[in-house]
Design goal:
78 residues; alpha+beta; 3-stranded antiparallel sheet
Length: 78
């Protein structure tokens, strides 16, 4: 199930980036990740995976490394 959540995250992330490319004169900050639903009494959690700034006709600024741990080290085979 973990691998499925990561695969869906990647699909949605690419989908959102493609939509943003069609928007002229826009500046957006995207913060995204995976919602982890837990059984009670444990609280739900959020795994942040991306923090990017999109500006029309400029390279994407990826600030993920400044704020987030290395997502490649997360075990997706659980």
């Amino acid at each position: 199930m973990t691998a499925l959540a990561f695969a869906m995250y990647e699909i949605v992330h690419e989908f959102v980036k493609n939509i943003i490319k069609t928007m002229p004169d826009v500046k957006l900050i995207i913060a995204g990740g995976i919602q982890i639903n837990m059984k009670k009494p444990i609280e739900d959690m959020f795994l942040p995976l991306v923090f990017e700034i999109f500006e029309h006709n400029k390279p994407v600024k990826d600030l993920s490394k400044m704020f987030l741990s290395d997502s490649k080290s997360i075990n997706t085979k659980i």
